[in-house]
Write a structure and sequence with these properties.
- The protein has eight helices and 18 strands.
- With about 350 residues, it is an alpha+beta fold.
- The chain has one domain: Aminohydrolase, N-terminal nucleophile (Ntn) domain (Glutamine Phosphoribosylpyrophosphate, subunit 1, domain 1), CATH 3.60.20.10.
- A hairpin with a 2-residue loop joins strand 4 and strand 5.
Length: about 350
């Protein structure tokens, strides 16, 4: 359950940084100027219910973190494991939530192909979790001889992204009688057949409008994507907070001046962390660093730890294909070695190899 933003930047050579404007528009988080780190009150009723008021981490649902790091030799997807559950509102109107640390947000979309996916935002469509639906889609992509089948020798990541949109939005979301109130960002990446470099695509389901535009390519060159609760990474990478509009207006700047200052920050303060020639292991370490930084950033903010749990990381390369770098299991890997080696590779009724 997350209302998630998505952000993507390219890797620019140093000499081009001054003229680049890689940052996405950043929404204002409030209608009136207020400190970003304003303290919020927590009241405990006699019935033991903790009521947290005006906490941006619960009221805005910018929770979880997922990161995509693309360099010349690989694409890395990494995400935390926190799942935020909503139990409605208490008598005072504050939302009641619980954060559990064992969600799965990173997936291998085809056992035989270098294609990965991750998500932030809506945790389930109807009664089915996004994690379970991703596995249903994998079965379709590998074995459905109709709309979802993929030719392993002739496919594109754009094609996979469009099939993801068809499955999650047209087939699942649109058929819900009661639409959820939170958005879903689904990231798809990997190598098209015969491609020498990876690419990243995003599918965004806008729940309030019951709308999902065509998949958008976030990059076919080296670059960085992040979504969910982006404040920490935005400050670290872009050098500017998510809500920079209100403080600038509070200082007396008009709209044109605010935009000029924001554009200048995005063009000149982007940190050159990423390089296209970065080795695979260092790309993995960088993705891990960004997720862990966000976890620790959120830990010390008022409110629940809405980013946390283990970090799952996968990497896809041209020659090695899809590999898990780090992955949690709910079962004992020693007692279930076949499952760790992908277990039920085929639908029920077909033998495992």
């Amino acid at each position: 359950m997350v209302h998630a933003g998505s952000y993507s930047v390219r890797v620019y050579p140093p000499e081009k940084n001054a003229g680049a404007n890689p940052g996405a528009p950043h929404p204002s988080s409030s209608a009136s100027p207020q400190p970003v780190f304003a303290l919020h009150s927590a009241l405990q009723n006699r019935d033991g219910v903790i009521r947290v008021t005006h906490n941006h981490k619960t009221s805005s649902f910018f929770v979880t973190i997922c990161v995509g790091v693309q360099v010349n030799d690989c694409l890395v997807f990494a995400a935390d494991s926190a799942v935020t559950l909503s139990y409605g509102n208490d008598p005072g109107g504050a939302e009641i939530i619980n954060v559990l640390p064992h969600g799965n947000k990173v997936f291998h979309l085809h056992r035989d192909l270098p294609i990965c996916a991750m998500f932030c935002g809506l945790g389930n469509i109807g009664a089915e979790s996004i994690a379970s639906l991703a596995k249903d889609l994998r079965v379709r992509l590998m074995h459905d001889g109709r709309d979802y089948s993929v030719d392993p020798k002739n496919y594109t990541i754009e094609e996979i992204a469009r099939k993801c949109r068809k499955f999650f939005f047209e087939e699942k979301f649109q058929n819900l009688k009661d639409k959820p109130k939170h958005d879903l960002n689904l990231y798809v990446g990997g190598y098209s057949s015969g491609a020498v470099a990876p690419e990243r695509w995003i599918i965004q389901i806008q729940s309030a409008a019951s709308k999902c535009d065509d998949p958008m390519c976030q990059g076919k060159e080296s670059g960085l994507s992040w979504g969910g609760q982006p404040e920490a990474i935005n400050r670290l990478v872009m050098g500017i907070p998510m809500n920079s509009t209100d403080p600038l207006k509070a200082a007396g700047l008009n709209d044109a001046q605010v935009k000029a200052v924001q554009d200048s920050f995005r063009a000149n303060c982007q940190m050159p962390f990423l390089h296209g020639a970065m080795p695979v292991q260092d790309a993995v370490d960088f993705a891990d660093f960004l997720v862990e930084t966000t976890k620790r950033f959120v830990r010390f903010l008022p409110g629940a730890d809405t980013v946390g749990g283990d970090t799952d990381i996968c990497v896809v390369t041209k020659h090695e294909g899809f590999k898990w770098v780090r992955r949690k299991h709910y079962f004992n890997s020693v007692l279930n070695p076949a499952e760790v080696s992908y277990g039920s590779r085929y639908p029920i009724g077909k033998e495992n190899d």
